[in-house]
Amino acid sequence: MFSMMEAARLEALHLADDPVSGLKAVIAIHSTRLGPALGGCRYLAYPDEQSAIRDAIRLAQGMSYKAALAGIDHGGGKAVLIRPAHLDSRAALFEAFGRFIETLNGRYITAVDSGTSSADMDCIALHTRHATSTSSAGDPSPHTALGVFAGIRATAQARLGGDDLEGLRIAVQGLGNVGFALAEALHAAGAELLVSDLDAGRVQLAVEQLGAQPIASEALLTTPCDILAPCGLGGVLNRQSVAHLRCAAVAGAANNQLASPEIADELEARGILYAPDYVLNAGGLIYVALRHRGEGLPAITAHLARISQRLTDIYAHAQAEKRSPARVADRLAEHLLYER
Length: 340
Ligand code: NAD
What we know:
The protein is α/β, with parallel strands linked by helices.
């Protein structure tokens, strides 16, 4: 366990086991150097405890990079709750988790993630004020979509010579909370939309409301387009898929799009501009962090606007150094986290 922590440069790992509620929780605090660690809480079944711990550590590190480049004065953290085979009361489990968070004295602030909801955050918030994305705080997804939209314009400017999206062919993979809102904004900007989702109903909605062209999920990645926007699951950019992409740039909301760091170099070698996912999709984190601090929409909107400038700067560095923007973003984040 300590070698895993050392490799990720993890600050602290906290475990809780509460037989009464069934809570088995891991909180990984990657860094508090720039501020309290902020990051989502997953509630999933894991094959074993080691996998849950590994997941928490990896994700907490990612949150530190995202927060550092978003400039929100937070470090990265992540919580993983191991979903039990049988549970008496979901509310009791999340309340127990709230008490666990409270013992950390504000060093970790939680948020919604895979398998959790605002209702779960409400249970946590009964016992600690270090919980965001409660039902009264609002949904971060539209803000994530806004940031991605602005980032797509910056990407079009850098790769295609102009930020006007009118007439550009943009392929959106995944029409969930973020993907659909993004598709709406792209449609309003005059883009030609190509869309896929595993849920045929979401696709139908985009066809009817946005005039989108439906594409089979397995074919979307190889469909000729200007910009590919992965907004479904992570890991879509791997050795096989990258070899067959037919786009000028990839810029989407999905977390962890690169199956491994080297894939960024393969995209670069193919002349495909890659928008580092955690820079582009930071809108949700910015919303959650600023709402938690009591900020209103004007401050949130102003902060969101910085995403496209950050991306433009990263593209300029990447071009000058002939490196992938993903490598440049990682180096910048590491500088902020470890060298300042
Ligand atoms: P969501 O669950 O609402 O939507 C995901 C959609 O993608 C679903 O409709 C699903 O059917 C579809 N999908 C999954 N795999 C697909 C595939 N192979 N082909 C086509 N469609 C596929 O999730 P969301 O909140 O919209 O988030 C989307 C992505 O953005 C996730 O990777 C998430 O981690 C990331 N993200 C979300 C936020 C946020 O604020 N919600 C913030 C940062 C990052």
